[in-house]
Amino acid sequence: MATITSTMAGNLWKVLKNVGDTVEAGEEVAILESMKMEIPIEAESAGVVKQVQKNEGEFVNEGDVLFEIE
Amino acid sequence: MVNTKKDHLAIQQTIEEGGAAKYHESNSAKGKKFVRDRLADLLDDGSITFEDGKFANNMAEGLPADGVVTGMGTIHGESVCFMANDSTVKAGSWGARTVEKIIRIQETAERLNTPMLYLVDSAGARITDQIDMFPGRRGAGRIFHNQIRLSGQIPQICLLFGPSAAGGAYIPAFCDFVIMVDQNASMYLGSPRMAEMVIGEKVSLEEMGGAKMHCSVSGCGDYLAQDEDEAIIAARQYMRYMPKNCHEKPATIDYTLPSEQDVQSLLPNNQNAPFDMRVMIKRIADEDSLFEVKERFAPELLTAFITIEGRVIGVVANQPKIKGGVLFHDSADKAARFMTICDAYNIPLLFLADVPGFMIGTHVERAGIIRHGAKMLSAMSSATVPRISVIVRKAYGAGLYAMSGPAFEPDCTLAFPEAQIAVMGPEAAVNAVYANKIAELPEEERQAFVQEKRKEYQEDIDVYRLASEMIIDEIIKPNELRNELIRRFKQYENKTVSQPNKKRSVTPV
């Protein structure tokens, strides 16, 4: 089990993957909105999304888990 | 010992073979080369010019060269001094003569004004020798004292092939540039075994002090090499960009034009959308000249050496692709350090600003982003090498200052036609100025009001307005940038700056 975490504090603007989706290493899985910028969040390793931990519109802190992947 | 010729050759040969065969084998199994082979790979023509202290401690059993090879050679035809630990000899540990040899070669480097390379692979102090090598005037502390004294006079580079433990970890800490070999190199004050004994922490060496960790988390490493060959190539490439010492400029380097030069098409229309600054740098730099420092550490800011028409330039650039290019405490730290190196060795600086500002929030305030940011401003502001600042899309808030803004005496501030400079971006500014007014308006009118005010604001921070006020020196089309930089850096080469009349700055840390 691996996790994809938020790289910085901000608002979770778009969640691009749902449970059951496959992700590639380096693929964009979510977009944060922080400091008025769009911040893409990329998967570090490939896998299948097991759980989505946060909802669009939620505040997330640096290091918060956004996805669990397998 | 009888000094016949035959004996001499035999003794010399034994010394040059290093430690016992089993240590050569175990090193080899880990992809670690013998110290003399490393030096052969590193130096021109595979040869050491001369070696000092080869016979150090030869009266003792099993301590050939006392575990370190010191001497001189050349890299790209220029003289360098080196010290290289031999980990087949008591794990490369330092005895009294090891330390004395290192101190002496540093003294040679100082007298000759030549770069000093440290090939480190050492378990640390030889405890049995501690009184002779640890506390005294010419004990190990003197190595670090010399490094500090030499810092900024001559380039000092560390190639970390194995451990640099405890006090030994300060050798890389005082070098300008630290290359670490993945899996083998490590840096730590106390080993995992010691950590478990003393503070009860259970942790692996790789996690606590491995090459990957130091090159991405702690920032103690500058370059992560996959193996020793890559480490050697990186060291030689770094040396290409360095002058011999602080009194000289780096040599110009043969170059070819960048194969792709279109910068315009890289820039998204939406100011807030990410793009890859690394690709933009490649399109203005000579082909294959990009050499990044701390690529994995604080990647929201890029620090790299490039050449433009063969001239070595240090680039500090925001990377909008990562964390929006926002400046953090670590990125400020990284930039400060890099600019210090460039300023010390007469390498002009190019700032590519695309920055929404410094990060805000509890986390970064507690991390001391203010003092780290101050470090960046201080290093930038006091750098007397030519400095060109280019506003790519935006420079907001203290981000403008940190990226060599107009108030900090850059040689010029250039901007692309779409660029914006402001205390903050339009969205934030309209909210800040009109928050009460917006709240008073009926719901259905708010949107239109906000749009109107944003448009007004946008016009106010438009680059032509800023150029009209002479905040910007020149507006440049993206695809003209390379040629503009060539022309300007050539002229700025003769820059002189008078230093204020004082002993030193009290630098923020």
Outline the secondary-structure elements.
The complex is a heterodimer of chains A (70) and B (509).
Chain A: E1 2-5, E2 10-15, E3 22-23, E4 28-34, E5 37-42, E6 47-52, E7 59-60, E8 65-69
Chain B: H1 5-16, H2 21-29, H3 35-42, E1 50-52, E2 68-75, E3 78-85, H4 96-112, E4 116-122, H5 130-133, H6 140-150, E5 156-165, H7 170-173, E6 177-181, E7 186-188, H8 192-199, H9 205-209, H10 211-218, E8 223-225, H11 228-240, H12 277-284, E9 291-292, E10 301-308, E11 311-318, H13 329-344, E12 349-355, H14 362-366, H15 369-381, E13 387-396, H16 398-402, E14 412-415, E15 420-422, H17 426-440, H18 443-460, H19 463-468, E16 474-475, H20 481-492
Parallel strand pairs in B: 3-4, 4-5, 5-6, 5-7, 6-8, 11-12, 12-13, 13-14, 13-15, 14-16
Antiparallel strand pairs in B: 1-2, 2-3, 9-10, 10-11
Helix pairs in contact in B: 4-6, 13-15, 17-18
Can you tell me about this structure?
- The complex is a heterodimer of chains A (70) and B (509).
- With 70 residues, chain A is mostly beta strands.
- In chain A, 0% of the residues lie in helices and 54% in strands.
- Chain A has one domain: Beta Barrel (OB fold (Dihydrolipoamide Acetyltransferase, E2P)).
- In chain A, the strands form two sheets. In chain A, strands 1-8-6-3 form a four-stranded antiparallel sheet, with no helix packed on it. A four-stranded antiparallel sheet of chain A has the order 5-4-2-7, with no helix packed on it.
- The radius of gyration of chain A is 11 Å and the shape is globular.
- Chain A starts with a strand and ends with a strand.
- The model of chain A has no long low-confidence stretch (mean pLDDT 93).
- Chain B has 509 residues and is of the alpha/beta class.
- Chain B has three domains: 5-240, Alpha-Beta Complex (2-enoyl-CoA Hydratase, Chain A, domain 1), CATH 3.90.226; 264-424 and 462-492, 2-enoyl-CoA Hydratase, Chain A, domain 1 (Alpha-Beta Complex), CATH 3.90.226; 426-460, no CATH class.
- Chain B is 39% helix and 18% strand.
- In chain B, strands 1, 2, 3, 4, 5, 6, 7 and 8 form an eight-stranded mixed sheet that branches. In chain B, strands 9, 10, 11, 12, 13, 14, 15 and 16 form an eight-stranded mixed sheet that branches.
- Classes of the chains: A mainly beta (70), B alpha/beta (509).
- Chains A and B meet through strand 5 of A and loops of B.
